[in-house]
Design a protein that fits this description.
With 281 residues, this protein is mainly alpha-helical. The protein is built from 9 helices and 2 strands.
Length: 281
């Protein structure tokens, strides 16, 4: 009798867990099956393509371009070195792009005609010309005159380009705030600076955070273009390794995976921030 009671208690303890698994499979089972099918098809396509091309995969030669052991120490390879450069360029450009975007949005929303015209001209010039052309113009035309290094030429080009798109995100978030919020702030005697800081922007951040994340991801991917002006970022390091080893598919797949890992981690992080804002705001 006693073992039967223990078995029933054990079954009762595991029942909620089984119910959770059952509900999860019921709601996401089809999605999991679709993902497995897509992954299987992609694997078959890559395998089939490599057979048709007669390509001999050499993944065993790739690892030391990421990490290697020298004198008993773990040392980063060329791809890690390029990744650090990508992080530097993307991080500085992202901060400057958000600052430029916010200032441009505020200029467009101001009462000054000159400020609105200046912001509009900047937006039209940047959004209607390719990033690569802007990068070449800054590096080959402005940098010799202003004595700007190639690193900061790349940062400036990315900041101005992404800042133009970020400004529209900021502006849309600001104008989405009801007018009663502005009127309440002015009735309390707050000036425009304090109104934006304490009333408008804290509410707008909930709406602008998801599209700003997309813009940040776009900036990280666009940073690959800085390799065209001989900056040894992740993409340029990949090109250099391919020129030496002819490991075309292995290196490009690895570089693509690194970019995917960065942007995917950023999306997850911002998703957690969104949930926090939903709870506390």
């Amino acid at each position: 009798m006693r073992p039967l009671i223990k078995f029933m208690i054990r079954q009762a303890e595991f029942k909620p867990a089984r119910m959770m698994i059952k509900n999860f499979m019921r709601s996401h089972g089809i999605d999991i099956i679709k993902f497995i099918l897509v992954l299987t098809a992609a694997t078959w396509l890559i395998s089939r393509g490599s057979q048709q091309l007669g390509y001999h995969w050499q993944w065993q030669r790739v690892s030391h371009y990421m990490l290697s052991i020298q004198d008993g120490r773990l040392v980063g390879g060329p791809l890690i070195s390029g990744l650090m450069v990508t992080f530097q360029i993307s991080g500085i450009s992202l901060l400057l792009a958000f600052i430029v975007g916010l200032l441009t949005a505020l200029l467009r929303l101001s009462d000054s005609i000159a400020a609105k015209v200046l912001a509009r001209v900047y937006l039209e010039l940047v959004r209607n010309t390719p990033l690569l052309v802007q990068l070449f113009f800054i590096y080959f035309v402005l940098s010799p005159v202003l004595d700007i290094s190639r690193f900061y030429s790349a940062v400036l080009a990315l900041s101005l380009f992404e800042g133009a798109y970020a400004s529209e995100i900021f502006r849309a978030g600001i104008v989405s705030i009801p007018k009663v919020q502005w009127e309440a702030a002015y009735s309390l005697g707050l000036n425009p600076y304090l109104t934006y800081r304490h009333i408008i922007l804290p509410q707008a951040i909930r709406w602008i955070l998801p599209p700003l994340t997309g813009q940040a991801i776009s900036l990280i991917k666009d940073s690959a273009l800085v390799s065209t002006i001989a900056i040894y970022d992740l993409t340029m390091q990949g090109q250099s390794i391919i020129a030496e080893t002819y490991l075309v598919f292995e290196i490009w797949f690895l570089v693509a995976f690194i970019y995917l890992l960065i942007t995917g981690s950023l999306s997850v992080l911002v998703g957690l921030m969104e949930n926090r804002f939903k709870i506390h705001v």
